[in-house]
Write a structure and sequence with these properties.
Helices cover 64% and strands 7% of the residues. The longest helix has 24 residues, at 27-50. It contains four helices and two strands. The chain has helices at residues 7-22, 27-50, 67-80, 86-89, and strands at residues 53-55, 62-64. By secondary structure, the protein is mainly α. The model has no long low-confidence stretch (mean pLDDT 93). It has one domain.
């Protein structure tokens, strides 16, 4: 899974949305799914790069990576839309 950052995030969101619309998804559903998909990928890339436990930026104490709940929430939003997009996840 490649990390998506900066302008790449917007480009990836547009690409996913267009892919879904071309396969017959409604535009609003495609937009919501694409946003959740890209958010998931960004958060998952952070967790993969930094691990599940990270240092708190001020105290240096170990904390759970704050991108984990973001990743999990984005996945739940994508799954709730019941979109068949298996090709995007491979």
């Amino acid at each position: 899974m490649d990390e998506v950052t900066g302008q790449g995030v917007e480009d990836e969101r547009k690409r996913v949305k267009a892919w879904l619309v071309a396969r017959g998804e409604r535009v609003d559903v495609a937009e919501a799914y694409a946003s959740a998909f890209v958010e998931y990928r960004e958060a998952a890339a952070n967790v993969n790069a930094n691990g599940s436990i990270v240092q708190h930026p001020r105290t240096g104490n170990p904390i759970t990576n704050p991108y984990i709940p973001i990743r999990d929430a984005a996945l739940q939003r994508a799954l709730a839309l019941n979109v068949r997009a298996d090709e995007l996840w491979s």
